[in-house]
Amino acid sequence: MGTDIHPDGTSVPSAHARPDGRPDVEARRRRTFAVISHPDAGKSTLTEALALHAEVISAAGAVHGKGGRKGVTSDWMDMERERGISVTSAVLQFSYRDHVINLLDTPGHGDFSEDTYRVLAAVDAAVMLLDAARGLEPQTLKLFDVCRARGVPVLTFVNKWDRPGRDPLELVDEVEQRIGLRPMPITWPVGIAGDFHGLVERADGSMRRFTRAAHGASKAAEEILDPDRAAAEEGVDWERATEELELLGEIGADFDPEPFHAGTATPVMFGAALSNIGVARLLDALVDLAPPPTPRPSATGDRRPIDSPFSGLVFKVQASMDKSHRDRVAFVRICSGRFERGMVLTHDATGRPFATKYAQAMFGRDRSTIEEAYPGDIVGLVNATALRPGDTLWAEKPVTFPTIPSFAPEHFSVARVADASKTKQFRKGIEQLDSEGVIQVLSSDLRGDQAPVLAAVGPLQFEVVSARLSDEFSAPIKLERLDYTLARRTDAAGAEKLRGSVGIEVLTRRTDGELLALFPHKWRLQAVVQNQPGLTLEPLIAEG
Ligand code: GDP
Question: Where is the composition biased (Basic and acidic residues) (predicted)?
């Protein structure tokens, strides 16, 4: 039986380690998901509330601990310590109703980066967290785009219902109108945002009434009322809720698993993470409605059955900048088979063997060993210098999973070596970081390879590149921000026509040779589209 380190520091028996666990049986118990949201919608609060309701069995990385709130702060990287943010992708594992739930953190806020998107390649579902007063916000929309492109089923949780907010019908309508996801509410609020009494369970019409808990300290007290009692005691609020539900029933918003799993409809729930309201309902929905790991399609289109020998997808590689942990951890999502520490896998990209002696759950500075894991689980492989995001690892039977696409960069900087005698190290470092997927490197004949353009989805990526070039390659750099905010894929003809246009530049992305046209803003792009209608200018995946 393996052990994991509980957030309070004690060891607990690992839920991975069930004797004779069959991959298909274990996979059915797994739910692997991420929360997509805009900063301040309440992701950290919800994560903590989920952990409160479920039993935390292991944590890889850490839960953000912000503003002195009790959390599990990772101090793995110097930069993290200085800024008080978590750069490492956290994976938190809970057990709930005999299920194992893996919650993958999508780094956001200032640390929004390509990794944020890559996490969505490793989940089977996403929870779209909305602030009741704000509805859909820009970062949520970007992340949703990636879910849509990948066909990830989305559950919607409308948060902060304890505060004044928008009308529930208006919120679900916004989801349908703006992103084309058909809402299928499974709970509905009794009482307007800010004067919230409880939730109607749509399936049986009962009401769960809450008494608010003090600031996330404990679970909110609750009682279940049958519809007659709810009508008698809740009066106009109950009438309003049931009328709204009838209206929704008429437009066919009943729960249907098929469109949900296909990513065209979303079950919607309401709650307040801070008061632990609706949080258990969300866990129940994850267990009852969200899909378990299913056979993953390979690059050739056929699907690797869950009970085939081990296969996994590297979705993130974290290089430690902490001097005492100068190593590289690859986060692997298990797609099929049973993982046992010590097994020797094949790294598909190179055909080389990869020993997994150092398979671990990352936990801040402490790392606990993972002995076994199953489809849906995440394993951290230490000293994984050869592994890149998008790589496949397999045992016995070869498979190649499709690589993770590069996402639309919105920040661009020219990098130059600060000390000309370090030019060789600089080139080598840039090449290394490009191949690791830390940053996208763009170049052109005009600029030469002494001054490549670095492209990022979040500005933190530049800081990571700077720090690593300086620490690992002894090649400190100077960065010059460029004014572009938008990239479009073009072709040779397009590049030719755009050459010389004021404020526009065409560069080649080194990893895949794509030609990217960079624009300062969308109006400049619109002007080009209007004036030169035949030009190839395709959007890249996920942009605002
Ligand atoms: P994140 O940026 O998405 O991780 O958001 P946080 O979890 O840090 O929450 C942002 C702010 O919203 C904090 O001040 C929280 O206390 C507050 N908050 C989160 N959930 C709720 C909620 O359900 N009700 C209320 N009133 N505030 C909330």
Answer: 17-26
The ligand 1 atom at the shortest distance from the C-alpha of residue 273 is 23
- Displacement of CA 99 from its chain's centroid (Å): 21
Q: What is the pTM of this model?
A: 0.86
Ligand 1 near 42 CB (within 6 A): yes
For ligand 1, say whether the CB of 114 is within 6 Å of any of its atoms. Answer: no
C-alpha of 495 from chain center: 34
The predicted model gives 23-51 an average pLDDT of 92
Looking at the DSSP assignment, which residues form a beta bridge with residue 423?
none
User: Does the CB atom of residue 38 touch ligand 1 within 6 A?
Assistant: no
Q: What is the tens place of the pLDDT at every residue in 205-223?
A: 999 998 765 554 455 578 9
The beta-carbon contacts of 479-483 under 8 Å, at least 24 apart in sequence, are: 479/413, 479/414, 479/415, 479/416, 479/454, 480/413, 480/414, 480/416, 481/411, 481/412, 481/413, 482/412, 482/413, 482/414, 482/453, 482/518, 483/520
**φ, ψ at 154 (rounded to 5°):** -120, 125
- At residue 338's C-alpha, the angle toward residues 333 and 342, to 5°, is 90
Task: Work out which ligand 1 atom sits closest to the CA atom of 272.
Answer: 23
Q: Which atom of ligand 1 is nearest to the CA of 108?
A: 2
Q: How far is the CA of 274 from the centre of ligand 1 (A)?
A: 7
- Torsion angle of C-alpha atoms 111, 58, 93, 332, degrees rounded to 10: 70
Question: If you count them, how many residues does the chain have?
Answer: 544
159 Cβ inside 6 Å of ligand 1: yes
Asked whether this complex has an ipTM greater than 0.90, the answer is: yes
- Nearest protein Cα to ligand 1, atom 19: 42
- Residue 349: predicted pLDDT: 94
